[in-house]
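Hey, quick one: can you model this chain's 3D structure?
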Amino acid sequence: MHVTAGDVVSVEYVIRLEDEQVIDTTVGEAPLVYTHGQHEILRGLEAGLEGMAIGAAKRVTVMPVDGYGERHPEGLFEVRRDRVPVEAQRVGAKLETTAPDGRVVFPYVAEIKPEVIVLDLNHPLAGKTLVFDVRVIDIEREGSLGAEEIAPAKKGES
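Sure thing. Here's the predicted structure for all 158 residues.
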């Protein structure tokens, strides 16, 4: 069985930046489970998983355009320091606020200046090439059994 549209796929992964720095992994934890072809995961990763078999492993490189997109300078904005809680006045701190149009947004602190704090609405991985080491754990297709559901009969069972 190979990964195709509509399959529920379980994947183990390690995500690295181009310099090999590990930024996330499911190894030793629950796998990522998604429905193939439903755009639930990064477009570049989904394309790399297409056609893989249960147990297959490979390295998939995802360029920014097929990952979290390019960085956009208009995603940066400055706010007065007194508008940011003291405990969040550190680079990398994640915040939650309401945009002028009423949407809830989740900027992070990109830079701290003497009078203002620079917030960034870009995804932290925007503009970065991501390298995934992936292994397909299971594939479930409507009307069929996945690998984890099939077990050999024990002696004496029929």
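One thing worth noting: The radius of gyration is 21 Å.
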